[in-house]
Fold this sequence. Notes:
This protein is of the alpha+beta class and 652 residues long. It has 5 domains: 1-83 and 469-515 and 613-652, no CATH class; 127-233, Chitinase A, domain 3 (Roll); 237-339, Roll (Chitinase A, domain 3); 376-462; 517-609, Chitinase A, domain 3, CATH 3.10.50. It is built from 26 helices and 20 strands. Strands 14, 15, 16, 17 and 18 form a 5-stranded antiparallel sheet that branches. It has a 4-stranded antiparallel sheet with strand order 4-3-6-5. Strand 1 and strand 2 (39-42) form a beta hairpin. Helix 3 packs across helix 21 (470-499), helix 5 packs across helix 14 (344-355) and helix 16 (382-390) packs across helix 19 (441-462).
Amino acid sequence: MNPYKKMKLRVLLAALCAWSFSIAFAQDKNAFVMTVAGEGVTLEEFENIFKKNNRDSIITQQALDEYMELFINFKLKVKEARDLKLDTVAKFKEELRGYRDQLARPYLTDGELLTEMVKEAYQRKQTEVRAMHILVKCEPMASSQDTLRAYSRIMALRERILAGEDFATVAKGKEGSEDPSAKDNGGDLGYFTAFQMVYQFEDAAYQTPVGQVSMPVRTKFGYHILKIIDKRPAQGEMLAAHIMVKAKPEADGEANALAKINEIHQKLASGEETFENLASKYSEDGSSAKKGGELPWFGTGNMVLEFEEAAFALKNNGEFSRPFKTSFGWHIVKRLDYKPVPSFEFMEKELKSKVSKDGRSEKTKKSFVEKLKKEYKYTINEKVLNALAAKADTNAYNGVLKVKKKLAKKILVTIDGKNYAAQTFLNYFSKRNGIKTTQTPAEYVNAQVQKFGEALLLEYEDGKLEAKHAAFRLLMKEYREGILLFELTDQKVWNKAVKDSVGLMEYYEKNKMKFMWPERLDVVIYTCVNDEMAIAARKMIAEGRDKSAIAAELNKESQLNLQVEHGVFSREDRDILGQIDWKKGLSKNLYIDGQVILVDVIDILPAAPKRLEEAKGLITSDYQTYLEQEWIKTLRAKYPVQVDKAILHSIH
């Protein structure tokens, strides 16, 4: 990553740190602590940024004054960028909009419910559930008739089980479960924990007592009923290795596989060979065999049930199992390491991320929307809605709904006293085409009006975020100004220094004495394995033999006899140069780490300026610093700045 890209990342990441910051205002938060060309900067803004970047520092007048100087430079650059109208460029607007969408998300959900669901998820992580299920498929956008049909069918299956029929038999039977795996497992899903099933399914599993059959639960797949077989404490995670032998398809393949795995086990038990060696030689799991059989960390639900049971039955690191069989073949598993479920503090960030991405997020969003409906007195005009639905035919699935202008002008949605006509919905609806659903046209239009109204509600709330949340307002300002700062600094400093070859050369010529090589030696360093090789090397050097020829001669029997390095080095580059006399010719023998080293000094190079090509990165960086300093001088002369020291020093 180039340096100015890194700078941009730092600017934006710094802004992100403001998320949880709580501002303590010393005075009126709207008082101006400074002005730039007559434009005021509030105490609220300065204090927010100062405290965020000086969290662990003692606040002194000197610290405030020093930071203010940096802040002035920042604000001058932003002022210049605005005067150049960089904030009107499409690229800027698009980038800022993208950041805003991300930053707004936490404000458009039910934060209290989110916290509760994170805690709920952690509590569920402590327990694993084993359940059986039966599925009757039903599309998310199914018609009310299809939905009722699916619900009636799943209820009929439940009644059969409650009447005494075996759950697995019903799941496997004709007109039973529509989950294809039920034919093999009778609906048994094994053990699972939080986030391993869709949320609605998981919720039903944890809510239903052991031995009971749940009421139907709806997911995106359809309707399910669950029978809870067991609940147990979470097993945690294990790092393990295994040896696997597959049964060949011939008649005696199973017997041969069993005999082979037993022979391997005997070698392990006797200590004849290590587990890792045996896995490398005999395991037929190619991906793990080359790593001594080692598998990635796994927990409940990541392996087939038989493998999990054998692995978690091992109680000590280094312990290995007896041979056991799974659908993949015969195995021996060895426990390498184990870790229990981590603490809540350790998992909280990960859990919050997962909660925001699975079905729980819909729950928090729905709760938030319901709160907004009350706050903004949200209403849908049912008469207008029904009139729109009545006009729907199959063309509605392609976003076509033909209504008269009189109906289109009628109020459909009201939010906070603001009215939205049916035409607004029709514009939204026309973009939704090619939809596949078994809903009737009227049902489809009704559902889309509900979605449209909620989308309007969230959009309305989104527009109020800056006014309702000071932290968000300040954060957005930081992002806005951070992007402007980056773009203009890129033009004036970073990119300019890289592309302005003439200016860079002029700067180098004026400042070349700042970029010096120290005194250096042009040397050939001979590292010999012993005295015998050092004597032979010294003799060949005296004869004037080329270093490559010397190496070729002495390394005929072993490439370790002699190592040769030729280069120009300073004392700092090679410690060995501090142990020889700086004069031309061959040094004495130096004994280091059991080797004999000879240094042949070819030339002594005095201190001299580095050529531009030799230190271009360092010189370019220095040139960038120079350009920025000159630019700031120009900005300070162009824009008058006033600081109210009394307000500044009131910060504590």
